[in-house]
Amino acid sequence: MVVDPAPKLLRLIDSFDPGEVGIAIEKLETLAKNHKLHLMFLVHAKKKESDDAGDAAMGSTSFRGGTDSNFFMVKSGAQRILSTEQRWGVALEPTLLSFDAETNSMHLGTTVEAEEEARHEGKERKTVERIEQDIWDTLCAEENPTQGELLKAVTGKNLTKLRVLEQMVSSGRIVAEKDGPAKRYRAVEIQNEVMKEVA
């Protein structure tokens, strides 16, 4: 049985009164046990967002505390996020709900944490690709620049730029050569193209 919203069925004088809400929830629990029902009731959330989705429910916290499982659905932009808390079992961590326009239905997607990690990895990958291209362009424009000259010519964090340089050397795209105390770089692929043209 689904009750939406619970206060309309319970006819509470004050849905913010924990005592009144607690007694009403006990009556619903007795009703469910006596008739072997699964009772699901809904309460609406406040407009103002809160850090804890459970604190957003309109009315007393007894709505939350008097149940076996609580499902929280919050809006985040165009997306909906579902999470749970329960007396036993494993709670569902915040998970995106995916909408299927063809069937007009929703299903569980990836977790919010996994989505954020994927977004972060995508952003990091684009940064690495951009730095790699900038290094390559600098090597094409300048003859055997030093490490310091390369780092100065390319924008980004030095740690990331050095990591990309090492990856490019490891892959054989560029070569690092000692020149006294300095280290100079040259592009292997450019040199190979020149050798082919000469041949």
Attribute tags:
Arc Repressor Mutant, subunit A; 199 residues; alpha+beta; disordered C terminus; four-stranded antiparallel beta sheet; two-stranded parallel sheet
How does this model look, in words?
The protein is α+β, with helices and mostly antiparallel strands and 199 residues long. It has two domains: 2-67, no CATH class; 116-198, Arc Repressor Mutant, subunit A. The chain is built from seven helices and eight strands. It has helices spanning 6-10, 18-34, 62-65, 112-141, 147-153, 158-170, 188-198; strands at 2-3, 40-41, 69-76, 79-86, 95-100, 105-111, 174-179, 182-187. It has a four-stranded antiparallel β-sheet with strand order 3-4-5-6. Strands 1-2 form a two-stranded parallel ribbon. A two-stranded antiparallel ribbon has the order 7-8. Strand 7 and strand 8 (182-187) form a beta hairpin. Helix 4 (112-141) crosses helix 6. It is rod-shaped, with a radius of gyration of 30 Å.
